[in-house]
């Protein structure tokens, strides 16, 4: 049996606060192989970022605590590693592009220093060698005149250029896995497209695996091989990109699809947002966490928690009615129109 590059097994990360236990990640499982891109999508507060920070041991403990599950990288447990062991992995084998490029770069250090630091720490380079390599990395990610810009401070970079610098820093040690946490947040549409294209080009060149974390299904449509949909800390759907986009199995995924602006929409066209708000992760409702917002919820949805199960091959859903005749997005929509 071939060993997976990364294997997340029923991971559970809870925060123990004065107000109660926050179940930020509550049973996430998937595997990732070399050269593959996994899209992790869901609303804010669904546990997307926390699950990635947990595997990197970047969650403060306390108040956080891994209460169950494990994360295996090349067969080794990341969760049980010592501080020294995980530091050898972070930035070297697994690198992360953090959510906000405006604040993720240290304002008092030159960009070249920050891009080159992983090379000094993990590869044993001198600072002069690291700066030379930093110039090459900035050129790789499309920053013009890298020989001059390597000595600039972050405030001298635009938002798009800071994001490119963050990518350069993450790629410095040729990591096996690149975790991109909302890599296009706060960037205009043109820059978003350039950043996504850049990450695809780098993946084709290096063969690394990518975990793309986003609240926007449209971002991962042309990038991801598979998609994990999360809600209230739990996985609700998992499948290939084609399966999730063209044959979605969970009403929450249907809602995310309907909230994406369609090509050709006019000012009079209506978006269809998901009504209501995500639940508090301290007081997750019994049964299906999505049931209070689901227009198709029935009595058992409010009392019996659905487990993620395979419905069609490897395409999985955590909905009691997924796979039943007549319970597909198109058939339900047709029934509503003709009712």
Summarize this entry quickly.
This protein is of the alpha/beta class and 339 residues long. Helices cover 32% and strands 23% of the residues.
Give a verbal description of the structure.
The chain is of the alpha/beta class and 339 residues long. It is 32% helix and 23% strand. The chain is built from twelve helices and twelve strands. It has helices at 48-55, 83-89, 101-104, 111-123, 127-140, 146-149, 159-171, 189-206, 217-220, 241-246, 251-258, 329-338; strands at residues 6-17, 20-32, 37-41, 64-73, 76-77, 94-97, 177-181, 209-214, 226-231, 234-240, 309-312, 315-317. It has an eight-stranded mixed sheet, with helices on both faces. A four-stranded antiparallel sheet has the order 2-1-4-5. Strand 1 and strand 2 form a beta hairpin. Helix 4 crosses helix 5 and helix 7 (159-171) runs parallel beside helix 8 (189-206). The longest helix is centred in the middle third of the chain and has 18 residues, at 189-206. The protein is globular and about 65 Å long.
């Amino acid at each position: 049996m071939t060993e997976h590059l990364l294997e997340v097994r029923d991971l559970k990360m809870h925060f123990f606060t004065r107000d109660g236990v926050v179940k930020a990640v509550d049973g996430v499982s998937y595997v990732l192989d070399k050269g593959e891109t996994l899209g992790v999508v869901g609303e804010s507060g669904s546990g997307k970022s926390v699950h990635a920070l947990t595997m990197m041991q970047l969650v403060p403990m306390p108040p956080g605590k891994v209460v169950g599950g494990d994360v295996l990288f090349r067969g080794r447990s990341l969760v049980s590693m010592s501080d020294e062991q995980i530091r050898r992995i972070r930035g070297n084998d697994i690198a992360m592009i953090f959510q906000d490029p405006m604040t993720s770069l240290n304002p008092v250090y030159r960009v070249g220093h920050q891009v080159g630091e992983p090379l000094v720490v993990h590869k044993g380079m001198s600072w002069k060698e690291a700066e030379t390599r930093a110039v090459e990395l900035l050129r790789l990610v499309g920053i013009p005149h890298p020989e001059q810009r390597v000595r600039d401070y972050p405030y001298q970079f635009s938002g798009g250029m800071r994001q490119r610098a963050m990518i350069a820093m993450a790629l410095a040690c040729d990591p096996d896995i690149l975790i991109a946490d909302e890599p296009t947040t706060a960037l205009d549409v043109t820059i978003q497209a350039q950043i996504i294209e850049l990450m695809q080009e780098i993946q084709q060149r290096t063969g690394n695996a990518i975990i793309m974390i986003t609240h926007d299904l449209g971002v991962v449509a042309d990038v991801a091989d598979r998609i994990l949909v999360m809600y209230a800390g739990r996985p609700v759907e998992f499948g290939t990109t084609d399966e999730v986009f063209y044959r979605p199995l969970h009403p929450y995924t249907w809602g995310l699809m309907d909230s994406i602006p369609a090509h050709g929409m006019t000012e009079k066209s209506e978006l269809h947002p998901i009504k209501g708000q995500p639940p508090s992760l301290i007081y997750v409702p019994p049964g299906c966490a999505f049931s209070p917002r689901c227009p198709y919820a029935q009595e058992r949805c409010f009392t019996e928690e659905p487990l993620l199960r395979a419905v069609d091959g490897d395409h999985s859903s955590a909905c009691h009615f997924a796979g039943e005749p007549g319970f597909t997005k198109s058939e339900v929509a047709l029934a509503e129109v003709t009712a």
